[in-house]
Design brief:
It comes from Roseateles chitinivorans. This is Diguanylate cyclase. Pfam families: EAL (PF00563), GGDEF (PF00990), PAS_8 (PF13188), PAS_9 (PF13426). The protein is of the alpha+beta class. The chain has an 8-stranded mixed β-barrel with strand order 18-19-21-22-23-24-25-26, surrounded by 6 helices. Helix 9 packs across helix 10 and helix 17 packs across helix 18. It starts with 11 loop residues before the first helix and ends in a 13-residue tail after the last helix.
């Protein structure tokens, strides 16, 4: 045992060293271990020198310990007796029964006595026993058979609920273990009670007998009874009876046979039949080295048909779809209905070109109107394509690849087809980890906002700032938005991130306004965030919470956000416009905007995407596109701002073609709040100096003289 510090009363040392339990003595004031016995060193596999002087919180760091020692620090002296876990020096986790008691001393705050007993082995035994019992009970209840277990004398030892269900036995008879009443009930339930009792007696008199017979019940059902002896240590100790309803089994077999290979609604092969055919196609493809394709076809917005026209019309649509899909393929190919409005097409001996032809025939077949009674409407579909063997080595893998490709089509706007683009499993795992890290980062406040200045091309004045999210992870370091934003959009976490950015940007704009800096702040809004039903109210709440004038907030929306559901987008934007919030179309030129929509949307600004600015002024194509966007913006009375401006030549070109504003590295990258304020002051000073210089130049410029040429006589 290591000697205790000088201030410690060493009289306790022989006492604790004689105990079989592991014991620490902890100073009540410092919470440091002042003495340990040999048993504690053996418990944790640590020498006394590593224990004495250590903080007790570092040795026992569960939430329960943390709360206890926090209470102890403020003078509470209640004891603690619980089971907890501790880490051994070799990394193993130990279950210990732990008691903490306060020991008063004449001087000082006294000591805490921490006594621990290793319960790991006992806990493991208990858990194994509980697991075994739970498994036995789960097995008993999970079987489709009624189970009855008796001892050698016929007394009931165990049963499952299926037994009571099959025989209709009242629950109280079984729970009360009223053996005679249970047996009498079963005897009365069969057609020949006397024969039943005689046979049961013969079975009980032969402990080693294996039997199987049928029992005809009064209600017409037939139960199969199987009886086996129960053994323990080489001798019979009881008997297990199992009862099965044969009529139910036959009916189930018939139903399974009907459903095993065909879809009941459309008559098409079902998933099981498709998987079997894909397996066969794989075997043929390997032998003949010929590829094949698997298409996943999912109807677009099919729920609207069920909701508006009813399920009967929905079923008629599914039958018609099945017919059209069959007509669009060859006889050797297979159309299957997987589930709901999801179908699969197996295209034999088809490479990428053949699969594309099949997908186009499907799109063409679905483009024809559906006409039922007096109704006429269109149903489109999204199709994902997987090729064997590149997109999967099994039927399940191929179908999963085709389904992923179909979902990418859905996310991209529907009514199209797309080939599967393989992703490595390690990449998927990395995205899962990144998604989890993002969620932790929001809780741990690891995100922050930077602000990029927006500058007037005419005056050089700062006219606003774009709020851009940044993330510094403790392990990854700085994670670029281009890496984590796509993952957030895919997982849906972009909604929470977007809400955080909105709140922080509004708060910062309000803080600047109180300091006398009137800086409009632009915030990017994702498609998923914009589609949230409470989005407009969230914007309004943020403005109210920080008392920010709505004109100092600009929401940047992409073209895809506006065109996905134009009417809904227009309604939402009108509500935002009524709040007084400004709106801009971000990355303009990269989507498929309609001038008709642009006229209707209450927007104030177009932002030219950096991909068009990068080639200025030398790239004629980029120059033409930028000039066209500027002229269109001016024609619609919209402000036009270019992003990604990095050179004087780019800025000068934009100024000549009439662009109003710019942002980019030429002025400044996205800056932290204090750096942005400093750059704001610099830009303001430069703008004032420029204005003064222009005014002085104008004043010194001589008046234009008229020159008269006199002709000689």
């Amino acid at each position: 045992m290591t000697p205790a510090p000088a201030a410690f009363n060493t009289a306790f040392l022989p006492l604790i060293d004689g105990l079989q339990e592991a014991v620490w003595l902890v100073d009540a004031r410092t919470h440091c271990v002042v003495a340990v016995n040999a048993a504690s060193q053996q418990l944790l596999g640590l020498p006394a020198k590593d224990l004495v002087g250590a903080s007790v919180e570092s040795l026992a760091s569960t939430p329960e310990d943390a709360l206890f020692w926090m209470d102890a620090a403020i003078g509470r002296r209640e004891s603690l007796h619980t089971d907890t876990m501790m880490r051994h020096a070799d990394g193993r986790m130990l279950w210990v029964s732990r008691r903490i008691s306060h020991v008063a001393q004449p001087q000082g705050d006294g000591l805490w006595l921490v006594a621990m007993r290793d319960q790991t082995q006992q806990r493991q035994h208990d858990e194994e026993r509980e697991t075994l019992l739970a498994e036995l009970r789960a097995t008993l209840e999970s079987t489709a058979d009624g189970i009855l277990v008796t001892d050698l004398a016929g007394r009931i030892r165990s049963f499952n609920q299926r037994l009571a269900s099959l025989w209709g036995i009242p629950e109280d008879l079984l729970n009360d273990r009223n053996d005679e009443a249970v047996q009498a009930w079963m005897r009365r339930s069969v057609v020949d009670g006397a024969a039943y009792a005689m046979r049961l007696g013969a079975i009980q008199e032969s402990p080693l007998l294996h039997t199987s017979d049928n029992l005809k019940l009064i209600d017409g059902r037939v139960l199969e009874r199987v009886s086996l002896p129960q053994w323990s240590r080489g001798r019979p100790i009881g008997r297990v009876y199992s009862f099965r309803d044969l009529s139910e089994k036959l009916a189930a077999h018939q139903r399974i046979e009907e459903l095993s290979h065909n879809d009941m609604l459309t008559g098409l092969p079902n998933r099981r039949a498709l998987m079997e055919r894909v397996d066969y196609a794989q075997a043929m493809a390997r032998r003949e080295t010929t590829p094949f394709a698997l298409l996943n076809v999912d109807l677009d917005r099919f729920k609207q048909i069920n909701d508006t026209l009813g399920h009967s019309y929905g079923d008629r649509v599914l039958k018609e779809v099945a017919l059209r899909l069959k007509e669009s393929l060859r006889e050797v190919d297979t159309v299957a209905r997987l589930d709901g409005d999801e179908f699969a097409l197996l295209i034999h001996q088809a490479d990428a070109r053949g699969a594309e032809h099949a997908a186009r025939r499907v799109q063409e077949a679905m483009s024809r109107p559906f006409c039922f009674d007096t109704l006429s409407f269109t149903v489109t579909c999204s199709t994902g394509i997987a090729l064997f063997p590149g997109d999967g080595g099994s039927a399940e893998e191929l179908l999963a690849s085709a389904e992923r490709a179909m979902h990418w089509v859905k996310e991209s706007g529907r009514s199209a087809f797309r080939f599967h683009q393989p992703r490595k499993d390690v990449d998927l795992l990395s995205r899962m980890r990144l998604d989890h890290a993002m969620r932790q980062a929001l809780q741990e406040r690891e995100f922050r906002l930077h602000f990029q200045p927006q500058v007037s091309l005419e005056t050089g004045e700062l006219i606003g700032a774009e709020a851009l999210i940044r993330w510094r992870d403790p392990l990854r370091g700085d994670v670029p938005p281009s890496e984590f934003i796509p993952v957030a959009e895919e997982s849906g976490f972009i909604v929470a991130i977007g809400q955080w950015v909105l709140q922080q940007a509004v708060a910062q704009a309000a803080a600047w306004l109180k300091k006398g800096l009137r800086v409009p702040v632009a915030v990017n809004v994702s498609a998923l965030q914009f589609q949230q039903t409470q989005f407009v109210e969230q914007v309004a709440q943020a403005l109210r919470a920080y008392d920010l004038p709505p004109s100092l907030l600009e929401l940047e929306l992409t073209e895809s956000v506006l065109l996905r559901d134009a009417e809904e987008a227009l309604h939402r934007m009108q509500a935002l416009s009524e709040l007084g919030v400004l709106m801009a179309i971000d990355d303009f030129g990269t989507g498929y905007s309609s001038l008709g929509y642009l006229k209707r949307f209450p927007i104030q600004r177009l932002k030219i995407d950096r991909s068009f600015v990068k080639g200025l002024p030398g790239d004629a194509s980029d120059a033409g596109i930028v000039n066209a966007i500027v002229q269109m913006g001016r024609a619609l009375n919209l402000q036009v701002i270019a992003e990604g401006v990095e050179t004087d030549a780019q800025r000068d070109f934009l100024a000549r073609c009439g662009c109003h504003e710019y942002q980019g590295f030429l002025c400044a990258p996205a800056l932290e709040t204090r750096a942005f304020e400093e750059r704001h002051a610099q830009i303001a000073a430069q703008a004032q100096a420029g204005q003064a210089a222009r005014a002085q130049t104008a004043a010194l410029r001589p008046a234009r003289a008229s020159v008269h040429l006199l002709r000689g006589a």
